[in-house]
Design goal:
single chain, 312 residues, Rossmann fold, 12 helices, globular
Length: 312
């Protein structure tokens, strides 16, 4: 599991800077135990029509073009669409842009971005308004140090949003806060550190299955052999998920007519542990679907996400 390249490609920080990010998420690198299928365990809030579509897709032999066409049709009406990416995959980002282009012709949309941290929302707004250049967006959002993946992987999506005046929503937790929680725990937060995250009493660390999954990665990366405490390690991961979920919800509440397309690492949608069930906790009747973007040669884990869409 530790050597899965798609797992290791997701981490926005080096082990030396922030060890806990090495666990986001190891789940899904093991071989699937079920035959290839586009269906997974859909949330209770998912509409019957979407469930029926997922079931129908699952019953087909996996034909890449047919699968992707059916997935697009099935997800088109959802309020929130989570597109789970591998950050370094050119194919994943090309697929994201194609999905965004297609859905933006059908309805008003907003694009949520894990790649930008919430304090930098004004920078995204300034870029969309034409007040700053793309280069200034990268510089003022501190993209290179806070995210760091090749800007050109995301640039076409950001440019399309500007050209079509599609809101760009910064989803992520400030890195300073995540680091503080990873080392000192949630109880150490106060003052300004609380500004861009949900109330601490809303950060739910009770999911035992999620805890067990993260514990396995934590132990595999040294466990007690490094300075991190597991409870803090796990709380930092959950904070990351909760912060993005809360921001998605506030966007839905502010502009309910807009469909939200959230671009996040696939670990944050895996098995509904991360963002999806935390959005649903806040809006129980939300209609949302998770889509895992995967290479054509990769078998589908039928439980990882609601749908899998093949990329080149």
């Amino acid at each position: 599991m530790l050597h899965c390249p798609r797992l290791l490609a997701r981490f926005p920080y080096s082990l030396g800077v922030l060890s806990f990010t090495l666990m986001t998420l190891a789940i899904g690198c093991s071989s699937p135990s079920a035959p290839p299928s586009a269906n997974a365990t859909l949330s209770e809030a998912t509409t019957p029509e979407i469930k029926e579509s997922a079931t129908a897709i699952a019953q087909q032999s996996v034909d890449i073009e047919a699968n992707n066409t059916d997935v697009m049709a099935a997800i088109a009406a959802a309020q929130v669409i989570y597109l789970g990416e591998t950050h370094t995959s050119e194919g994943d980002h090309a697929a994201q842009l194609e999905i965004i282009e297609t859905l933006s012709t059908q309805s008003e949309i907003a694009i949520g971005l894990e790649m930008f941290q919430r304090p930098f929302q004004p920078v995204l707004d300034s870029y969309l308004a034409g007040d700053i250049t793309e280069a200034e967006l990268v510089e003022q959002s501190e993209y290179e140090t806070r995210w760091g993946y090749d800007w050109e992987l995301y640039a076409p999506i950001v440019r399309y949003a500007k050209d079509n005046q599609i809101p760009l929503i910064a989803l992520n937790t400030p890195a300073e806060v995540t680091r503080q929680v990873a080392t000192d725990g949630l109880e150490s937060l106060s003052g300004e550190a609380l500004r861009y995250i949900p109330p601490v009493d809303e950060i739910d660390t009770a999911d035992q299955a999620y805890r067990d999954a993260i514990s396995g990665v934590f132990n595999a990366h040294g466990g007690a052999g490094h300075s991190l405490n597991f409870e803090n390690f796990f709380a930092a991961q959950v904070l990351w998920d909760e912060t993005m979920a809360e921001r998605i919800v506030t966007q839905l509440e502010a502009e309910p007519e807009r469909q939200m397309i959230a671009l996040v690492g696939e670990g944050h949608i895996a098995y509904d542990y991360g963002i999806p069930n935390r959005v649903e906790r806040r809006i129980p009747d939300v209609e949302h679907v998770s889509v895992r973007l995967i290479p054509a040669e990769q078998p589908i884990d039928p439980d990882f996400a609601d749908f899998s869409l093949f990329t080149e």
